[in-house]
C-alpha cells in the first residue's frame, strides 16, 4: 500500500495548512475561520502548488456538516429563545426577509434565476454562530440582555436555515417542473412529498427518539467506559443523520440537528459536548477548508463592484434592517447597535447553502464565489465594527470595576480567580474566616451570583491586566486561581507575576501534564484533585 493516498494527502494538507493559517489569524486577533478558508484556497485548484482531492474534501465536508449541525442542536435552548421570543422571532424573520430580497435584487441584475437569487439572498442573511459568539464573549456580553437577544436571534436564523436546507431541493424540483410546463399536480407533488417525509421524520424522533436515545446513553454511562460513551454519541449523531437521509430522504443537516436537540435535553448533554468536541472541531476545520477550495480568487479582480455590493448587503443592508427592527420594538440604541454589529457577517450556514445551491444547479459558480468572498471580508471586518459599537459597554464595565476597586482599602488581601464550583467553596471558607478577598469572574451570571452573595467582584478575564489591577494585584498577598483549565491558569500566573513578583500564587490543575506545566512556569503551589483525594484517603485509612 502506498504511503501517500489522496485521502491521507487531503486530510494532512487540509489540517496542517489550516493550523498554520489559523494560528496566524489568531495571532492577528482575527477569527480562525479566516485562516481555515484561506487554507482551502491554498490547497485548492485555483492556486499553484499542491492541490487536494476536491471530491474527497467534499465527502469529508459532509461529515463536518453533520457534526456542526449536531453541535447546533446540542446548544439549542428553547428556554433562551422563549425568554426573548417577542423580539428575536419577528426580528430575525424580518431581517432575513430584507437581506434575502436585497440579495435577490442583486442576483436579478446579473440575470440569475429566481431560485439562484433566493439561495444567494438566504446565504447573505444568516450570521456565523462561531463569529457571533466569539464577539459577544470577547466583550462579556453573552449573559447580558442584549447578548441573549442576539443569541436568540441567531437561533431563529439557524432554525430558518435548517428549514431552507430541507425545502430547497423540493423547491428546485418545482421550478424545474414549472419551466418544463408541468401541471399544478406535478408542481406541488415534490414539495408536498418533502413536507410529508419531514413530518414523518420529526414525529419518529419526537415519539421514539426522545425515549431511545436517552435510554441508550444512560445504559452506556452505567458501563463506566468513557470510550464507549464517546463512540455512542458519535454513532447517534452520524447514524441519525444517515438514517434520516436514507429512510426519509431528508438532509443530513436536519437529522443531525434533531439528534443534537434531543440529546441536548438530557442531563448528559454537557458531557456529550465535551467528549465529541475534538472530533467536531477537526471535521469542522476540514469543512471550512473544503469550502475555501471552491473559491476562485479571480472574482476579486473580475467582479469588484459585485463583491462590494455583496459585502454592503452583509454589513450595511441587514445591519440597518436589524437596527430599525430592534428600535421599533422599543429597545435602547446600545442593544440595537450590538445586535446589528453581531449580525454584520456570514459563515457556516452560508457555505452550506452555497454548496447546496451549486449542487442543485440553481446557483452559478459566480454566486458561490461572491458568497465566499463576502464571508471572508465580513469576518475580517466584524471585530473592528464590533469593537467600535461595544466601546460603551467596556467603559461601563470599567466603571463597575472601578467602583468595586474602591469599596475597601486593599492591602495584603486575597484575589480569587473563578467563581465556579471550586471557587464558591473557597469563597465560603475565606468569608467564614473573615479574610478580605476579591473575586475576578468573566461569566456574567456567576459574577451576579457572587455579588448577590455580598462579595467584592471584578467583572472580566484575569488574563487582562486591567482587571488584575482593578482587583489590587499590586498590594495583594495571595492569588488563588480556581479556573478549571490549568493552561489558562499558567497564563494568568504570568500576568500576575509581571504586575507583582512577590505575590504568592496557588493554582488548580486537572492532570499531571497541567501540573508539570504550571510548575515549569514557576507557580509555587499547584493543587491537583486526584493527588488531594489520594492523600486524604490515605490519612483516613491511617496510612498517611
CATH fold-level name of the largest domain: Na+/H+ antiporter like fold
Q: Mean pLDDT, nearest integer?
A: 82
The percentage of residues in β strands lies in under 5%
CATH class of the largest domain, please?
A: Mainly Alpha
Number of domains: 2
- The rounded Rg comes to 26 Å
Secondary-structure class: mainly alpha
- Name of the CATH architecture of the largest domain: Up-down Bundle
Helix segment tally? 24
Key structural traits:
about 550 residues, mainly alpha, Na+/H+ antiporter like fold, Rossmann fold, 2 domains, 6-stranded parallel β-sheet, 24 helices, globular
What would you note in describing this structure?
The protein is mainly alpha-helical and 544 residues long. It has 2 domains: 6-389, Na+/H+ antiporter like fold (Up-down Bundle); 406-540, NAD(P)-binding Rossmann-like Domain (Rossmann fold). 73% of the residues lie in helices and 5% in strands. The protein contains 24 helices and 6 strands. The chain has helices at residues 6-27, 32-42, 54-75, 78-83, 85-109, 114-125, 129-138, 145-179, 184-223, 226-248, 252-264, 269-293, 299-302, 304-328, 333-342, 348-360, 365-389, 391-405, 421-432, 444-452, 465-470, 486-499, 512-520, 529-540; strands at 414-417, 437-441, 456-459, 478-481, 504-509, 525-528. It has a 6-stranded parallel sheet with strand order 3-2-1-4-5-6, sandwiched between helices. Helix 22 (486-499) links the parallel strand 4 (478-481) and strand 5. Helix 22 (486-499) packs parallel to helix 23 (512-520).
